[in-house]
Specification:
This protein is of the alpha+beta class. The protein contains seven helices and 17 strands. The chain binds manganese (II) ion (2 copies).
Amino acid sequence: MDEREFECYMKAGEIAAKVRRYVEQSVKPGEKLIDIANRVEDFIRSFGAEPAFPLNISINDVAAHYTPLPNDPSVLPPNSVVKIDIGVHVEGYIADTAVTLCFNDKYVTLVEATREALERAIQRVAPGIRFSEIGKIVEEVLRSYGYRPIYNLSGHSLGRYLIHAGETIPNFRDVRIFGRFRDGNAYAIEPFATNGCGFVIEGSTVPIYALKPNPKKVRDLGSEARKVFETVYNHRRTLPFALRWYLTKFDLDTLVKALNEMKRLGLVVEYPILVERSGGVVAQFEHTVVIYRGKVYVTTVGGG
Ligand code: MN
Ligand code: MN
């Protein structure tokens, strides 16, 4: 990592921290999810940055990957536990941070335990420390409160225009994972906790997509579908996107048809919602850390 890359990671992190604070202060039950997503994503753009992925608004037993669908009528329900996961990129350098808003007194401990798990995990990050060490801390903190981590959700290394750059930071002491933190790398650490069984399964709703470009196959798209592909590719490259972002350029019918063609040709990856298998309530907190010249920076902590 060079100085310029480091500066981009820091800038993305500072913006993400401001966005998270804005979310904490402004998101309340009763607002339409699509209005929340639009204004938070516009807030990201107001700093000259772009969302690294569509704003995730995942409610109660939905652990991750919900973002409003086109014309989504849903409203943030009262008494909910809502994870807002924010991605910001500056020239492809990503900040990934999440907060859980708790509008139900029954789950305050679950939420606070998860916040503590992230804090304790981050204190341990240093070059040479094994990723499984982070998982051990996360599980210990959560278990001490009587909760479980989500075993099949994890943190990850970050790369330029890459949200999952190949390495996995587990939320339990996963002995199959040998990786260690290394200088010059960026990582997202994200404990998920639940009062349920501790596993997520894919739901049937698919609100998020990413392109998987293949020049040979793009040629087989019809002209409308190719126009959609090119519009999204020029805007996102391989970063995730939501259909609602393109409704000013294409009507919904055109988008859905294009997407189906792209699916058939293997040009798109789908990200279905992830739901706690036993219906448990899920909390999540996340920060991005960068290790640069031997020092650990929590880029998304803010306050600078
Ligand atoms: Mn995230
Ligand atoms: Mn993440």
